[in-house]
Amino acid sequence: MSQHETPLFTGLREHANKNPLQFHIPGHKKGQGMDEEFKDFIGPNALSIDLINITPLDDLHHPKGMIKKAQALAAQAFGADHTFFSVQGTSGAIMTMIMSVVSPGDKILVPRNVHKSIMTAIVFSGATPIFIHPEIDPELGISHGITPDSVEKALNQHPDTKAVLVINPTYFGFAADLKGIVDIAHRFDVPVLVDEAHGVLIHFHDHMPLSAMQAGADMAATSVHKLGGSLTGSSILNVREGLVSPERVQTILSMMTTTSTSYILLASLDAARRRLATEGYTLIEKTIRLANETRAKINDIPNLYCVGEEKLGTSATFDYDPSKLLISVKDLGITGYDAETWLRQNFNIEVELSDLYNILCLITTADHEKDTMVLVQALSQLSDELSHSKNEEIKSIPVHVPDIPVLALSPRDAFYANTESVPFEESAGRIIAEFVMVYPPGIPIFIPGEIITKENLDYIKENLEAGLPVQGPENADLKYLKVIQEQVAIR
Ligand SMILES: Cc1ncc(COP(=O)(O)O)c(C=O)c1O
C-alpha cells in the first residue's frame, strides 16, 4: 500500500455510499434520528461515517481489515514496528503504554513534571514511581526534560526498574538527549516509553528534535490530534518490538478502550497520517519559517522575550521545536494569565496556555503570515499600553518555582487510603490523597502520597490569585484538601 492511500477513510466512505439500511447502533442512523439543529450544523457527510464496528468496517479491538491496514501505514510513516490507534486521546495511549509494561510493585522511572495521565496509570497499575527531577529554568519558571546522567544514576540505584518514561518534547517544545537516554536504558534492558503528546510533527522534519522512534525508544504515545491534523481525541501509540510485546499492548489497549470506537476519529487519523507522510516535510518547513520570523518580530517588542535556540546547550535542553512560541511576559509586569485575558478581550486571540510568567502560542501547518501579523500587532499594542500607562518603570515579576514535595506513600496507597478533608490553610505537613494541578498544562503540583508544604500551598494560592485554572481536588474551590486520615507526616 502507498502512503497516498487511506484504507480506513476510503473504506468508510465507500460503505456510506452504498447507503445500507441500518438496523444497528448509532441510533441516529445517518442523522435521521437526532436533533435537527445539531444535524444541520454537523452535516450529512460527518454523520454518514459516524458508524460502529460492524463486520465490513473492522474492529479496533481485533483489527483484521481496513483498520489493520491503516495502522500498518501509520507504523510505516512513523518508523514504528506497530502503530495502535487511540480514540481516547493521548491519555488513553499513555495509560496503555504504561500498563503494558508494569505490574503492581514494579518500579518505573518518571520525571516529576508528568501529565496526570501518567500518574493515573501509575495509581491504577500499582507501580512504584521513582521520580527524576527535571531541570528547572529559573528565567522562565518552567521545567525542561531529564538528562541521560540522571537516568543513569537512577538506573544504577534501581537496577530492577521495569521502564523509563520520558516527556519528549515538553509542552514548551524542549527535547532532552533522547538517544542518549535510550542507549543508557537499553544497556540495562529497560524499555523507554515516550510521552510524545507534543511531538507529532518532529518525526517529519530534520530541523526538529529526533522523534521517539528515530531515537530507538520502545513506545511513544503521540498526539496526532494536538498538532498533526486529526480530530480532537484521536491519537496513536507507536511500538518497537524487542523489549515490549505488541500482543500485550493490544490486550491492554482493548481493556482500556470503549467498545463504541468513534469511526470519525479513526478516519481522521488515517487522513492525517496521509497528509503528514506525503506533504509533511514541506508543510513543516513553512511552519518553522513562519514561526522563526514571528519569533524575531516578537523579540523586537520591548519587554517581551520569545524563547529560541539560545536556550539550547544543556543536556535537558538538547534540542527544541521552533514552531512553539513561548513568550515570557514577566518584564511587562503582568502575569501570563493577564496577557492571555488581554489578548482575548482586545484582539479575539486565544493562546494555547498561560502560566504565571509566560504565554504559549502554537504555530502549526494551519497558519499563515496574516495570522501571525495580528499576534505581533497585538503584542506590540500590549507592550505599548503597559509602557505608557505606568509612570514609574515596569517592575518585572520575579520567578518562583516551588520545590518538588517529598513522597511519603505510594500514589496508589495514598489514593485508596482512608481520607479526611482538612481546611486548605491547615493542610501543611499532611499527606495529600488527591491531585492538584494547573490545567493546562496538567502537571501536578501535588500527587497523592506527597507531603503538603506551605511553600506549595502558597504557590497554589499564587496561581489561583492570578486567575489560573487550578484543578484536581474533589472540593473544586479548594477550601479543603483530601489528606490521609489522622496520619501526620514525619520528616
Ligand atoms: C505532556 C502531555 N502528555 C499527555 C497529554 C494528554 O493528551 P490528551 O489530551 O490527548 O489526552 C497532554 C495533554 O495536554 C500533555 O500535555
From TrEMBL:
Residues 403-461 form the Orn/Lys/Arg decarboxylase C-terminal domain. Gene3D superfamilies: Orn/Lys/Arg decarboxylase, C-terminal domain (3.90.100.10), Type I PLP-dependent aspartate aminotransferase-like (Major domain) (3.40.640.10). Transmembrane segments: none annotated. Its cofactor is pyridoxal 5'-phosphate. One of its GO terms (molecular function) is transaminase activity. The keyword Transferase applies. CDD domains: Orn_deC_like. Keywords: Aminotransferase, Decarboxylase, Lyase, Pyridoxal phosphate, Transferase. Residues 6-369 form the Orn/Lys/Arg decarboxylases family 1 pyridoxal-P attachment site domain. Belongs to the Orn/Lys/Arg decarboxylase class-I family. This is Aminotransferase class I/II-fold pyridoxal phosphate-dependent enzyme. It comes from Fictibacillus norfolkensis.
